[in-house]
């Protein structure tokens, strides 16, 4: 092989590498789509639209939100997992998609680790343990003692949003932490749960802070403890489970942005930088907090570590509580 030929090959390879670098550096060159596997109007949708608006300004291209609800987020997640890995299809979804369903469901069309490139977690969503106003328990410790007393009488009933939901898992964590047997009662949503608690159908309930806080402030139910590392501004007088001596009750929902697996590293770096800057903006943080969420920026590796840890935790909780989803 002649030196001239080798030099030509080297020059060609350098040219291809330079072209590829320029191509990635030019990203984005067209509109970006953020898939939300929920219906419009919820917290996930609101966070996605906030991100889309700011990303559009940062990246100089339109960023649109496309709602693809169905099958407890599986439909939207599968669409993104199968999308072209070019950075123009992303997904913002909650921990239901990444850790809850994979821990409870026998088979899924996507893998929460291998099907995606993990960009960042941008918000945390604590839940709150609620008590019926007439319940003889004003603290989480008293509620735990009461639940333990009721274990031999069928178990204290508490409201959830159905098998495998965030309230269900948090409730099972609470029952395990206090050594009690409790009976989950499914409701279709927060409004139905609160009505049931007011009517005395269930003694306790687990709800999102965003939905429950107005009902607590109105005096319809009492809040005993919230999950997460710190108290929520919407319920400043309500301790965390850790403050109440029950750090095992650690379920906190969250919202993470991902791209399809094999999305080029330069594209991911562009998105990571943009999201990091967006989540440092005080106005963005206020907007997220106004949704009763905790604004954060958790990049790729901590994001992946969180998935691994929660998969292990939720799988164990589901096995002990015999929770399965068909």
From TrEMBL:
Entry similarity comment: Belongs to the UPF0065 (bug) family.
Protein name (database record): Tripartite tricarboxylate transporter substrate binding protein
Gene3D superfamilies, A to Z: Bordetella uptake gene, domain 1, Periplasmic binding protein-like II
InterPro entries: BUG, Bug_dom1
Keywords: Signal
Alphabetized SUPFAM superfamilies for the sequence: Periplasmic binding protein-like II
CDD domains found in the cross-reference section: PBP2_Bug27 (cd13578)
Region forming the signal peptide: 1-25
A Pfam family the protein falls into: TctC
